[in-house]
């Protein structure tokens, strides 16, 4: 008798949340992922994650009107300093991949500490949008 393998944990999560997770195994993204890991390996996983997200936006932006949107980590929703640092990290990476400030917007969790950094980012020319989380699965999908 042969064994039957079920769906992976990532597949189950994707099905349960009813969203497409960008970290799944699309062959189109393998080289992009490998190059980002190689280039940023000494800077930690958040730098790699941010780089990949911005590179993927660059691949898509010509097919879009308006802005591309990326969200800071929802796990930092109650730490304004970490939200500010991640938003600035996105801005630096967008600049590196050739996406100007008028073509991106950073989604900020709608908590007091996180929203408190929006005026600072606005002063720096970085557009923001308050976003809400209503459940743990949403937070997992967004992180």
TrEMBL record:
Keywords for the protein's UniProt record, in alphabetical order: Schiff base
Domain of life: Eukaryota
One GO term (biological process): carbohydrate metabolic process
GO molecular function terms noted in the UniProt entry: transaldolase activity
Keyword Disulfide bond recorded: no
Keyword tRNA processing found: no
Official protein name in the record: Transaldolase
Protein species of origin: Aspergillus leporis
Lineage of the species this protein comes from: Eukaryota, Fungi, Dikarya, Ascomycota, Pezizomycotina
